[in-house]
Amino acid sequence: MFAGGYWGKILRVNLTNKTYAVEELPRETANQFLGGMGFAVHYLYKELTPGIDPLSPENKLAVFPGPFTGTNVPCSSRIAFAAKSPLTGALGVALSGGYFPAELKFAGFDGIIVEGKAEKPTYIFIQDGKVLFRNAQRMWGSTTSDCQVMIKHDLGDQNVRIACIGPAGEKLSHMACIINERRAAGRKGLGAVMGSKNLKAIVVRGNQQVPISNAEALKEARSTMAKAMKASPVLYPQFSKLGTAMVVDHLSAMGMLPMNNWSETGTAPVEENIGVAKQEELKVGKEHCHSCPVGCTQQLITRKGPRAGILGEPEYESFYSLGSTTGVSDVGEISASDRLCDELGLDTMSAGVCVGFAMELAQKGLLPKEQHEGLDLSFGNATTQYELIRRMALREPGLGELLTNGTRQAAKKLGGEAWKYAMHVKGLELPAYDVRGAMAHGLNYATSFTGADHNRGYAIQEIFSVPVPYPVDKDSIEGKGALTKWNQDIGTGTCDCATICAFMLTIAMPDTIVECTAAMATALTGVTFTADDVWRIGERVNNLAKAFNCREGFSRKEDTLPWRVMHEPLKAGLSKGGVISPEKLDTMLDEYYTVRGWDKTTSAPTKETLLALNLPEAARDLYGA
Amino acid sequence: MVTITFQTTLRRSLGVHTMQVERPGATVGDVLAQCEEALGQPVLAHLTNAQGELLRGVMILVNGKNVLLLQGLGTALKAEDEVVVFPPAGGG
């Protein structure tokens, strides 16, 4: 049915009945949604009943690589995990890389939909078109590394690829992640969705080669991509050697690296302690994902102190969440905390922001001393951070239980003014950019359907002065609605649906990635995709995801920012004085909804918009027949 | 005096963070060329291509305003202006 790229097969697994079925991937679905996050949003919109408990058997876990995954298209081994998020209550999507995505394609599937709940801890083993339900009782309670070792031993196969949860997922922490190899689908608590289903792991093994419709045309399109990658002054010369954390120095110099729970951003440079030069002192190696010639993952080893000997791979986000925002200023300690989160299956970003939140509340007297449980909650205490990660992951009574479902829930439990310092949007903790110095980046945090998510609409124009589609003033709100739509739709169409690594968009080829995606998709699949189609797919997926949230009761009031971002201007640094006041946010939202064709009062896509995007089911759901 | 601050990898490779130049009326390009002379090592080569155009991702701020929205390297400077120069970066 498909000449290449897709197998035309979706695997549906029911854990309650221990059954599975192979369903056909309709051509229309491929045309309209392309793959990856697009497929996940499409199936979850269609199949999830509004109002369900995200941790009930009624929730489903969608797992979709893209059409390029498993081929020799560079940087394409990406996969979207998605479900209704326990952390946000919205549609939750997180993408991961590594080798698991490609292996799933080698096993002969375009994706998996997991339903129901297993009676006992289980892992599923998918091999060349068949599924086994295996007992995971022995692995229950294990860390993510140990779980993978045990499963390989259990199956007698060292070459399987595994996506699993750690203790945090089993304990239903709303910050639990899914780990494959040492990569993470980190955010939105999707690990807890697996935990709620008693699903410890998804294991894949395959030997099938993904077919290519037109090898010559694909070669040509790939060479355009390879040339763009080589031409980048950043990708190979810097990024492949230094990884994402190279921008610690950049964001710190811009006065936009959040410090001490966003209370001290810009007040002091951090490069001397946790910048690139310090990172290099601990570097021992690097890693690549399947099909990636770049290899941005940097391996660091902690050399001293109680955590000496731990090998970590902290990304930039962890240098913020487990570093600058908790005041921890030692690279080795940040790396060890990052590793602990991954081992226990906790999102490094939300976990760190929760630690910084607790530290500030303690400082302000909003977390009473008797609740500190003997911990020194001062900013900068790495031992406290390490201990809190453990307690949150294991949902230990007291602070662990208080913080493990994120800052929004913790603030609600604590009452008083704690909510003012809870740095989240829609329940998802903020990423590593103090958006008081970057208006479109802030508008993206407010409007992303997944909550505060830098991966949904990264404003490269503001953060890195990339003049595509045009240069902007990072501190001005003018035109930021249209720019945010542009950033969200291009990222969704190319990176999240075709599943090309996001750094190809943000670093290597922002000006050519849409055309290149269309050309490669056409050559690979035999289905004709134009650049307009790719744009349209990005827009369609963002509208359908928004409709999902509207169906769950989300409205304009959830498209907001934390109190601090709207009321406390930055005190110092290059972005001093920056703030996104409620008035500024309102102005940007009005423009954003207008350019999107969404209702300015409800924030919902209008009926006309949904119909124009060929989403009649969503139009019926929101507006009736 | 115009103050020029070099950031991140540029700061490390030049070995200098801040310089001051007495050139009212000069452009950003002139001032960077003067820094180059004073330092005895290339500065503009880190920021421009063979045609002398700014590389994608270079961020030069004059009193906080991006020169891409002014006149690029041709942006005229006044005494007391503050210029901050970021080489191309990416990641995050």
Observed structural traits:
heterodimer; A: about 625 residues; alpha+beta; Aldehyde Ferredoxin Oxidoreductase,  A, domain 1; Aldehyde Ferredoxin Oxidoreductase Protein, subunit A, domain 2; Aldehyde Ferredoxin Oxidoreductase Protein, subunit A, domain 3; 6-stranded mixed sheet; 27 helices; 17 strands; about 15% strand; B: about 90 residues; Ubiquitin-like (UB roll); 5-stranded mixed sheet; 5 strands; about 20% helix; globular
Task: Sum this structure up briefly.
The complex is a heterodimer of chains A (625) and B (92). Chain A is of the alpha+beta class and 625 residues long. In chain A, strands 2-1-6-3-4-5 form a 6-stranded mixed sheet, with helices on both faces. A 6-stranded mixed sheet of chain A has the order 8-7-12-9-10-11.
Characterization of the model:
The complex is a heterodimer of chains A (625) and B (92). Helix content of chain A is 42%, strand content 13%. With 625 residues, chain A is an alpha+beta fold. Chain A folds into three domains: 9-205, Aldehyde Ferredoxin Oxidoreductase,  A, domain 1 (4-Layer Sandwich); 244-423, Aldehyde Ferredoxin Oxidoreductase Protein, subunit A, domain 2 (Orthogonal Bundle); 435-561 and 581-623, Aldehyde Ferredoxin Oxidoreductase Protein, subunit A, domain 3. In chain A, the strands form four sheets. Chain A has a six-stranded mixed β-sheet, with helices on both faces. Chain A has a six-stranded mixed β-sheet with strand order 8-7-12-9-10-11. Chain A has a three-stranded antiparallel β-sheet with strand order 13-14-15. In chain A, strand 1 (9-14) and strand 2 form a beta hairpin. The longest helix of chain A has 21 residues, at 531-551. Chain A is globular. The model of chain A has no long low-confidence stretch (mean pLDDT 97). Chain B is α+β, with helices and mostly antiparallel strands. Chain B has a single domain, classed as Ubiquitin-like (UB roll), CATH 3.10.20. In chain B, 21% of the residues lie in helices and 22% in strands. Chain B has a five-stranded mixed β-sheet with strand order 2-1-5-3-4. The model of chain B has no long low-confidence stretch (mean pLDDT 95). The interface between A and B is medium-sized, with 42 and 22 residues.
